[in-house]
Design a protein that fits this description.
2 domains; mainly beta; binds S-adenosylmethionine; 11% helix; Elongation Factor Tu (Ef-tu), domain 3
């Protein structure tokens, strides 16, 4: 038996590539995004009452993790990328049905100019992610403080301090809401977005990810990450 679903909407996100996205929602509260509903689901009535909830569950497709075959075991980044667990004991994008589940903060609901948009924060989703469903987060059901959490008992720890070079600082100041952007970038880099198997950072090596409309470049030395620049995309 197969079942067919179509997206009710798509995510607008600052994350333009998979690399660098936090591994769960909520780790970077400054990560703002939107869910834009599409026809025929973009009916204003469909979101009436949603403003009464502070958080929502999003069920989505890992559309950039589609594979013909699936593997029963995966290597979670949290375990350093070299220890394996069962796919159903993980939140890995590569799974028999590439479906993701994220609880995110609902900042607002906008229904103007023919668009129905959910304003979100704390997202861990790639730009363009297809969303299959939205459900309100209900505290007494969905929060289980005594729950055991397997190999991820607590949020990842912060290992680096983050500083901005003079160039990056100037570029930051010329952008919209620079202090918000500073906190966003700082939290993102504190979490060490390099792939799990990267090992110790190579001093002097420049790392980069695409965010919003720029390429964020940084370098790691000892326990400090230096943001080098917020470069125009595609410029080396
Ligand atoms: N919270 C969700 C869950 O538990 O199902 C996602 C967890 S998954 C470990 C998070 C990672 O999925 C992110 O770090 C990002 O690299 C990846 N990701 C996010 N959106 C994606 C998409 N649309 N397609 C493929 N990978 C995506």
């Amino acid at each position: 038996m197969t079942y067919t679903f179509e997206p009710i909407g798509y995510i607008r996100s600052p994350y333009k590539e998979k690399f660098g996205i936090p591994r769960q929602p909520g780790l970077i509260p400054e990560a703002r995004g939107e869910l834009v509903l599409v026809a025929p689901y973009d009916r204003p009535e469909a979101v009436i009452g949603l403003e009464g909830y502070s958080h929502v569950w999003l069920q989505f497709v890992f559309h950039q993790a589609l594979r013909e075959a699936w593997q029963p075991m995966v290597r979670p980044p949290r375990l350093g990328g070299n220890k394996r667990v069962g796919v159903f004991a993980s939140r890995a994008p590569f799974r028999p049905n590439p479906l993701g589940l994220s609880v995110v903060k609902l900042e607002g609901v906008r229904t103007v100019d023919g668009e129905v948009v959910l304003e979100l924060s704390g997202i861990d989703l790639l730009d363009g992610t297809p969303v299959l469903d939205v459900k309100p987060y209900v505290g007494y059901v969905d929060s289980i403080p005594e729950a055991r959490s397997g190999f991820a008992p607590e949020a990842p720890s912060v290992r680096f301090a983050v500083r901005f070079s003079d160039l990056a600082e100037g570029q930051l100041q010329s952008r919209h809401e620079p202090e918000h952007l500073r906190r966003f970038i700082t939290r993102l880099l504190e979490l060490d977005p390099r792939p799990a198997y990267s090992g110790e950072p190579q001093p002097g090596r420049v790392y980069g990810i695409r965010l919003y409309d720029f390429d964020l470049r940084w370098r790691i030395s000892a326990d400090v990450i230096e943001v080098l620049e917020l470069a125009p995309p595609g410029v080396d």
